[in-house]
Amino acid sequence: MATNTSRRAFLTAASGLAAAGMGRFAPPLAMNLAAVGSLAASQASAATTDDGYKALVCLFLQGGNDSHNWIVPTDSSNYTSYFNARRDLAIPSSKLLPMSTPGQGSGRSFGMPQELSALHALYEAGQAAAVANVGTLVRPITKSDFVAGVGVPSKLFSHNDQQAMWQSLQPEGGMTGWGGRMGDVLMSANDQPVFTAVSTSGNAVFLAGAKISQYQLGMTGPVMINPAQPGTRAGSSAVPGALRAMLNASTSPNEYQAEYLRVAQRSLATAGTLQTAMSGSGIPTLPTASIALPDGLSVNLASDALAKQMRVVAQMIAAAPRLGLRRQVFMVNINGFDTHSSHSRDNPLLTARVAQSIAWFMSAIQGAGMSSNVTLFTASDFGRTLVSNGDGSDHGWGGHHFVMGGAVKGKQILGDFPITALGTSTDVGSGRLLPTMGVTQLASSLAGWMGLSVAERQLVLPNLSSFGAGPALFA
């Protein structure tokens, strides 16, 4: 088990790299990457990791989630404004579940659609909180700034760039993400650092660090090199052993081949250990019975790609103590949220899949006795327009998100929930919301819960000093 070194050692490592090579990054991020990279290389961390195991799970809703229909105003005047803006996309008030929403102003009330009933139940039980109008920002700006083009993030409304901004706080081309940079700081807390940053959805910039390499999980466990597994291959039981020996002994002068070889060797070295630990995790299988939903819809978790990702993450979390892990960052993904068309047909099922998968995951984690050790949060490219295009909604900016876990101060909407109407101070066109909270602020609160000091968060999150405090998600 790793121990914490002094903050003085950490800050010395960081400040000594102020003139580090900039590469493709502009200050302050280049200096931050150099600092966290140096920190990871020296295995020095000022982060607080002596308070037991903690895992942070990012659930990315790929395509741009229409969160206007996840949290809907229900008081008379604001529902009327919402309906007038959304028209054919508006959810009937009779199909909204009332939310307990202290702190959002006198007379305001909100609801969630029936398809999110499983998430609504977590919220009302105090296991989830909502964070209003979060989006990609370089610094806080006003509508006047937006009109003048001052302080506006580059390439707004572009999928690739805004996915990259959410995950790395840089436009497309950023080489590291804030989850991976957190991993750089936290990896020394783990007996097996290779399991610090874990993706179930392929290579994710969110988990890329200056030193840490993200570990890939398949939907059933470690991604195995099948020809190297015991058994008969090509008619011979000697093939797996020979392949393992060749991979372990091989070297290559070619940089690409050498990196591929390192990945293969890491896979061979870790897959068996992880598979054994996960098989004894005690996490139940996904239910095979379909879950009936309103309007004739249903979800079958046993065949759902998101639910399968959530289960394998739950297995790894439950196995963490046996692997000597104290800090992990995960990413899971579900696509399909780019609902320019067939919105009313497709969006209810998508949101139900998310809600049911989250509810199952939180139940499994609670059954493992680790509810307070895990925090899950949603993220997405951007929000969507309030205005309908006739069959769906188009690319927006700010959106509402949920944060869940036993440590979360739930049953509240944090941040400034905007008036859901056209022509407001937060409407920059067609009901695209000007964010009132930056991704950086949300990330800072999550990083603080993971144990990062203020100084470390300033290294991991460029431009943090430009923002106010993050949402008070934790006690």
Protein model, in words:
The chain has 475 residues and is of the alpha/beta class. It has one domain (54-222, 290-466): Alkaline Phosphatase, subunit A. It is built from 13 helices and 17 strands. Strands 1, 5, 6, 7, 8, 11, 12, 15, 16 and 17 form a ten-stranded mixed β-sheet that branches. It has a three-stranded antiparallel β-sheet with strand order 2-4-3. Strand 13 (384-388) and strand 14 form a beta hairpin. Helix 2 (29-42) runs parallel beside helix 7 (178-186), helix 9 (255-279) crosses helix 10 and helix 10 runs parallel beside helix 11. It is globular and about 75 Å long. The two termini are 26 Å apart.
Structural descriptors:
single chain; 475 residues; alpha/beta; Alkaline Phosphatase, subunit A; ten-stranded mixed sheet; 13 helices; globular; DUF1501
